[in-house]
């Protein structure tokens, strides 16, 4: 037997092995796709069904659920409230994080990275539910219960560290020569940040803005705890009261509401994903 | 580095931008830039964390005599918490939830997806990535609603029971597995994104060499991939562990009304806000913070050790 024959003998099983491998990979990916699609299907059918159940079905197609939904005055107000809280958080967190990240990126502070990591850890613990009692007391003492700024401020504290952490990474990537030339022409630090650095890190700002928006848009616990006036409730709390009140008539509008409430977050994500790509730049590293 | 008057020609040294402060930002200027964010972090993040510790040793209440003069009760709240079988069962549920859904589920599925999608054709990769990300982008309240209907028990039979022709009340009969499957669905995107970003930093020549040397897929992972991206994977593990630990979303599925599905955050919410036991709730929060701290320290220790 020549070496060529040997190679061919070997190639048969190896090719078969590779084929099996590929089939298994595709099977895995298809199963994953099914797993991720199936729970969402209800959100695509129930809002358009006259008599939705908990099962995916489009037995009596209709568009009537959407106009019916707005007979409840809190449907429109809660979506508007969500927009106010989310945009407020984007402006507040984005602004504060932008300035802080720039300063931290350009001026040496001893132990800077350690401080940032500790803050990041603290925020991932405290923003959850561990500190909801003292957060509630702070809101109570600062007269922030049942107020719009209260919701925005409480959500912002927890979002800031991660926003600074990620933005600083983008700012570190801006070459100093840009700012140096701007300084030669007499620009002050504020002008440099606004006119030179901000345009360069626009993809980073976009990713951060989406991240803040989606977080604030979906936040349930903070408004749930500090708001008592239903006219101030955001969509996250409103949908929960739809859900817990039950009944067929409610299910119809609740499903339509769920879809309307989901769309802005998804659309915003898709727009930014198309324009800038929604990726981590290998940034979160130990 | 006090004042930014260094005349270093930045054009010659682009990387010097990090140290030479090309922005002309003075120390007071930098402080002014940082202050607004710092105030927010101190008031709404650092103070609450410290306050939790203080509240845990008082019988604080919002109204009544204990509101103006809360008395020091020492470790009574802690003793009460640790003798409360419902609290201990919430700890067990939470640990199982975190271990099953984050440590095993999201981590393994997220990495496997990132690894396998690299080899898949684009028409498969892009839709699957988007689907996984949707599960992460959809607001928590909607996600809770979707899964409550998905698991729907008879008489309001949900999709899962319809497909399997069963009549199981999933959230009551199998609360922990049901929550774990839900949270794997919800959070895998983050691990997939982070693993993907880490895999992209690997020089292709590493894998090429390993493949030419005849390494199987598993051998490549063990000998080339894991050692190179260990740091990122550990950071990912820590973040998803802490997030899942503090996650309030199961409340949106269960309404907080299913004992076997009551995680620590839900139990603390009940004690503090429904029974107004703020001291007890804070003592429980402190125990939760301590568990989180131990997890974070354990992570730092492993990171130090593996980084040599």
Keywords for this entry:
heterodimer; A: MetI-like fold; B: 308 residues; mainly alpha; MetI-like fold; 2 domains; 15 helices; 0% strand; globular; disordered N terminus
Structure description:
The complex is a heterodimer of chains A (286) and B (308). Chain A is an all-alpha fold and 286 residues long. Chain A folds into 2 domains: 3-48; 70-276, Orthogonal Bundle (MetI-like fold), CATH 1.10.3720. Chain A has helices at residues 3-45, 65-69, 73-106, 112-130, 132-141, 148-172, 176-184, 189-200, 202-218, 221-226, 235-245, 248-276. In chain A, helix 3 packs antiparallel against helix 9 (202-218). The longest helix of chain A has 43 residues, at 3-45. The termini of chain A are far apart. The relative contact order of chain A is 0.12. Chain B is mostly helical and 308 residues long. Chain B has 2 domains: 14-55, no CATH class; 76-307, Orthogonal Bundle (MetI-like fold), CATH 1.10.3720. Chain B is 73% helix and 0% strand. Chain B has 15 helices and no strands. Residues 1-19 of chain B have low confidence and may be disordered. At the A-B interface, helix 1, helix 3, helix 4, helix 5 and helix 6 of A face helix 1, helix 2, helix 5, helix 6 and helix 7 of B.
